[in-house]
Amino acid sequence: MRLVATKSIAQGTELARTIYNDNGQVLVQRDVKLTPRMLKRLQQFGITYVYVKDAFTEDIIVNPPIPDEVRIEAIQMIKSSFKHFQQDQLIKNSFLFDKTGQKMTDIVRVIVDQVSNREEVLSILSDILISDDYIFAHSINVTIYSLALATELGLPKKEIEQIGLGSMLHDVGKVFIPEDILQKSGQLSKHEYEIIKTHTEEGFNLLRKSPNIPLLVAHCAFQHHERLNGSGYPRGLTDKEIHPYAKLMGVADVFDAVTSNRVYRDAMLPHEGLEILYAGSGVLFDKRLVETFRKTIAVYPKGLTVELSDGKTGIVLKQNKNLYERPVVRIIKEQDQDVAPYELDLSTHLNVVITACDTGFAKKIQ
């Protein structure tokens, strides 16, 4: 399978991974030949990239970081929890977690097992799931990234589970934000942005009064937008004043925000999202966390078309452990001329680097 931009896909291209909604219903089945109407709908849903079938990549299999059924169950759990809070806005000390707290913790444990035993680094791009609300998909993505980062750091099991629960609930305060502001497709006004920012305090106040919710989980909601240099919100905390969980979650939150599909902008590719984190490393984000996070994700996902410094073009075939910027690439062109495909391991060809990525090759797939 090959990763391509939806806006460049030719009519008749076959989809390589099924697209679901967050209720687990199939929207577009794999092997289906995409029609102009389907492609338009995918773009309207904000889907920037999909995996398609391609003669060069028939043997490239991209597995999701967690099974589809686990992801769908987790999103449904988050959705029902948020809806419950929304309905009980006037009753801040909701008894939600008497009923669902254990189920949510169980899902966190399943995800921990999945990311701990994975053979490859994470590639959320392999998950094509259309949600009717960005917050729910974002919450599960941040949970997966945060748990992978916490696991890579070697944190104790109890701390990892708390981070997982905090990640799932970090944006719960957004249930108090007016829908027209939350779903606005254009740029927010200064006043609207100030309203959005209140979700951190609202979430904290909600969670700290909820039975069976550790106070540390509430602080994840409170502090995940704080930054080392004090430029974050709601309190403008600096480095040592920010809880380690919130620092960790802040990295995962920003990365998913910029690499997620949104109706009003294209998603960034992972290496572009990492550049955002590196640009803020030591100023906004903890350097150690950024460096460790880099080890948990596929910088260049399998199936991505890349251009190399020596004029070759290829498709990422697999990752090299601990050298994630230097994958194994299947070369298909040299100096813009087609060649018989062969493999080039960038971990052993250190004089060659990836200089660009291209997701517009689908027009040539027939």
Automatic annotation (TrEMBL):
Report the residue ranges that make up the HD-GYP domain in this protein.
113-309
Please state what the protein is called. HD domain-containing protein
SUPFAM superfamilies per record: HD-domain/PDEase-like
What InterPro entries does the entry give?
HD/PDEase_dom, HD_GYP_dom, HDIG_dom
Q: Which domain of life is it from?
A: Bacteria
